[in-house]
Amino acid sequence: MISSLRKAAAAVLAAAVIASGCASGSVPAQTSPAAETTSAQAAAAETTEKYEKGENPVRTAEELAGKKVIALTFDDGPNTGVTNEILDLVEEYGIKVSFYVVGQNINPDTAEVMQRAHSLGCEINSHSFTHSYMNEMSAEDIKDEMSHTAQLIYDTVGEYPKFFRPPYIAVNETMFNCIDLPFISGIGCNDWDDSVSVEKRVRFLTEKCPEGCIILMHDAANNEKTAEAVRQSIPVMLENGFEFVTTSELFIAKGITPTSDGIVYSYATENGMK
Ligand SMILES: [Zn+2]
User: Fold this and answer.
1) Reduced 3-state DSSP string for the chain
2) Against a cut of 0.90, is the pTM above it?
C-alpha cells in the first residue's frame, strides 16, 4: 500500500519538481551545515529577547469546525525584506501563515524576523539547511541538514519544526527513511520565476486555490512580486470566506494525522492528494 502510494507520489513529484522547482538562485552551499550552524546558533542566541519564545498555541478541531481552511506557506526565507512585508500583512489582517525556512539564511537580523513571525502565531518549519538536492545526499548528510536546521529553529523561536518541505520537492527513499517529519509540497504558480506577473499570481491565489489545500509561495529576498500579489489577494480571499491556518491547523481541521512515511502532502487528505 505504502509502496504504491510512494510510486503515485513519485509520479506527481516528477512533474512537480519541474513545475515548482523554486529555482530562485538558492545555490547549494559549499560549506558544511555543522560549520555554519555554530555561527548561526551564536547569532540566534545573541538576538534580544524582544519576542517571547516557546510553543505557539494551535487551534483545535472544535475551534476550526465549519471554517473554510487554507494554508498559505512561504519557502526560502527568512530575510529582512519580503518576509517582513508578508508579516506586515499577517499582522494587519490577523491571519496565520507558515514559513519553511532555509537554515543557512538564519543570522542575527533574520532570526529576529523569525521571532516576529512566531510571535504572530505563524509556524516555522524546515526547508533544509543548504537548499540542496537532498535526493543526491547520503543518509548522514540528510540527517545533518535536518538536525542542524531543527536546532537553529528551536534556538531562535523555542519550538521545533513540525513539517519538512524538500528543496525542489525532490525526494527519494533514503530521505523518507531518514526524516521523521511529514513531507509537505503544495500547489503553486511558479512564483520563483520573475517572469510570472503579479496579476497572474493574484489570479492564482484568488481563483485557483481550493479549500483544504496548501499554497506554496516563496518569500525569497528578491520576490517583491509575491509580496505584492499576497497584499492584493488576502482581502479578496477573506471576502471569499477563507480562514488562513498554519500547516498544523490545516490537518487538525481536516481530522488527518499526517505521516512521514512516503507521502508528500499538497492537500490535507489521507494520501496528500486531492
Ligand atoms: Zn525552496
Assistant:
1) CHHHHHHHHHHHHHHHHHHCCCCCCCCCCCCCHHHHHHHHHHHHHHCCCCCCCCCCCCCCHHHHCCCEEEEEEEECCCCCCHHHHHHHHHHHHCCCCEEEECHHHCCHHHHHHHHHHHHCCCEEEECCCCCCCHHHCCHHHHHHHHHHHHHHHHHHHCCCCCCECCHHHCCCHHHHHHCCCCEECCECCCCCCCCCCHHHHHHHHHHCCCCCEEEEEECCCCCHHHHHHHHHHHHHHHHCCEEECCHHHHHHHHCCCCCCCCCEECECCCCCCC
2) no
